[in-house]
Amino acid sequence: MGQNRAKAKEAEVIDENLRRVYEDMLDEKVPDRFLDLIARLKASETADSESGDR
Amino acid sequence: MSADPRDEIVEHLPALRAFALSLTRNGALADDMVQDTLVKAWSKIHTFEQGTNMRAWLFTILRNTYYSNRRKAGREVSDAEGTFTDSLSEKPAHDGRLQLEDFRRAFVQLSDEQREALILVGAQGFAYEDAAETCGVAVGTIKSRVNRARARLVELLKLDDEDELEMTDQATMAVVSGRRTSGALN
């Protein structure tokens, strides 16, 4: 039982730190290259559907 | 007015990048993976079931791309340049919690499969079932990977030493053990 509690404690410490590391990554600004890429993908699709009835 | 599910992709970009960085441990490689994933997601959108978890769907594409590249290369990509550990700024740990730098150094030593399982379940908050589906393995496999990942980190961070554990976040300890530290509220 004491063993289980120690394990739960360890898991909590690990996950707490993991979330802090992960949240730091989530806070990073998304580079413009990805937004540009999405815009290009969208645009190419619109061009396709306008140039023919697929 | 039929909404295009692809309009939702942009909302998942920060999580997709964080997942990619956790998996590859390398900023440049992570962003290449994200780019591949976006292009694939765009053209394979018909395989996405409306109403299901789009984030999990995107993660699946990304990790499949990563593992297929890894198979071709015949080995894990190493964190030789320390990009993962160096790419993020350090915040001072006034509260006595583990130094994030130490934690990152230990984290990058886990196997790809262990990092992936731990990030999905421990950080991203996926249910074991969703994580299992994302990784294409049984629920039991995910559970055991998460447990082994935590055990390995405990070992690397020497948390199994009682004194070390006492040095970590006291508030967390109090919650977990169900005890309040002296002088706590009420």
UniProtKB/TrEMBL annotation, chain B:
Residues 11-75 form the RNA polymerase sigma-70 region domain. It comes from the Bacteria. One of its GO terms (molecular function) is DNA binding. Pfam families: Sigma70_r2, Sigma70_r4_2. Gene3D superfamilies: 1.10.1740.10, Winged helix-like DNA-binding domain superfamily/Winged helix DNA-binding domain (1.10.10.10). Residues 101-153 form the RNA polymerase sigma factor 70 region 4 type domain. InterPro entries: RNA_pol_sigma-70-like, RNA_pol_sigma-70_dom, RNA_pol_sigma70_r2, RNA_pol_sigma70_r4_t2, RNA_pol_sigma_r2, RNA_pol_sigma_r3/r4-like, WH-like_DNA-bd_sf. Keywords: Sigma factor, Transcription, Transcription regulation. One of its GO terms (biological process) is DNA-templated transcription initiation. The keyword Ribosomal protein does not apply. Belongs to the sigma-70 factor family. ECF subfamily. This is RNA polymerase sigma-54 factor RpoN. The lineage of its organism: Bacteria, Pseudomonadati, Pseudomonadota, Alphaproteobacteria, Rhodobacterales.
